[in-house]
Amino acid sequence: MSTTVAAAVAALDERYPPVWAEEWDRVGLVVGDPVWPVARILCVVDCVPETVAEAIAADADLIVAHHPLLMRGVSSVAATSYKGRIVQNLIKNDVALFTAHTNADVANPGVSDALAARLGLVDLRPLEPAGDDPGRGVGRIGRLPVPRPLSALTAQAASVLPRTAWGVRAAGDPDRVITTVAVCGGAGDSFLATAAAAGVDAYLTADLRHHPVSEAVAGGGPALLDAAHWATERPWLDDLAAYLRARLEVDVVVSDLDTDPWTLHAASPLFTPSKESLP
């Protein structure tokens, strides 16, 4: 059972055309020779030393990553830098690297479809449709089969998403009944206004910031759920792996290695006001 890097790239480009990527993004083949044989592929969110070591230990010939390794121009890939050491390690072990990022975000099915599926959302449509195809675009809006309060939806999200130290936090009335939900895998605070304009009851994404959240909730927008960036994109790897298995004669492994940078979480103790703070 073996194919080539070129065949894998062709299959990936068909599913996630590079022209769908944002202008600033860097997708496609990063390391490797198109003629290299591929018998096993490892699917990851991040190409970091830990996932490279995982690929080498698993005898993988190709890593398919969501996040680009080399986003900006470089003048050196010497082993004197963090990313240079990754590139050198990949080359020394004949492991190719391919990235599908914003082109996978807007695909249908894509990153946010997999996230919506974890919540059981139905009747999906894009949060921000692509101009040339209303069936794809950034994020997804869907309906919960059974409405539930925000507190229950938050607990559900924490239970169905990959476990991280970050967990899931929410902003809004815990008793607010949620029927329609928008989701966006990865950092999605730039679509807060889009979610509000869509009239959804809740919006789940990652990397939400204090002031935009405060202003969005105060402005009567949807309840907000903030999960770990890695956790919102990891579900897509299962869909990616299923596609690759169906298209190529290869073994495909999905990494469950948590590459979220936040590694510890301590819940605040119950607040007891000091005598000095009492009126």
TrEMBL record:
Tree of life domain: Bacteria
Signal peptide: none
The species this protein was found in: Asanoa ferruginea
Protein name according to UniProt: GTP cyclohydrolase 1 type 2 homolog
Gene Ontology molecular-function annotations: metal ion binding
Subunit text: Homohexamer.
Protein keywords: Metal-binding
Pfam families registered for this protein in UniProt: DUF34_NIF3
One Gene Ontology cellular component: cytoplasm
Classification lineage: Bacteria, Bacillati, Actinomycetota, Actinomycetes, Micromonosporales
Family: Belongs to the GTP cyclohydrolase I type 2/NIF3 family.
Binding site residues for a divalent metal cation: H66, H67, D105, H229, E233
Keyword flag Cell membrane: no
